[in-house]
Amino acid sequence: LTKGVIKFKPKYITYNDIVNSANSIDSISALAQSGDMLKLEAIEQLMNIARYYNKDWKPNWNNRGENKYFIIWNNECKTYWTDYNSSSGLSVVYFKNKEDAQSVIDNPNFKEILDTIYR
Known about the structure:
Distance between the termini: 43 Å
Helix content: 40-55%
Low-confidence stretches: none
Structural class: alpha+beta
Order of helices and strands: HHHEEHH
Mean pLDDT: 86
Shape: elongated
């Protein structure tokens, strides 16, 4: 305003707008190193675990009668639990049945993966 120029922000920005708004290459690399890569790696590991349990099953979002199970961290109770949805995606990783999702929660070998994703 001091220069007499008013610049309005666009209503919808793109991802490139965000990347280009970084002041320097250090800002961009700081975004990528803030623990996000560890979380993404853990999500990939959980996706592989789900593929192991699910075999060839993939969620059918056109079938409202089919439950798709996922893992949730309950911060109030400090515990993991399973839930399901039959009509829309609330999670990234789904299991064919509740027992498989619970098996992942109960397996101490997967605790670090779940903690990295959800906590």
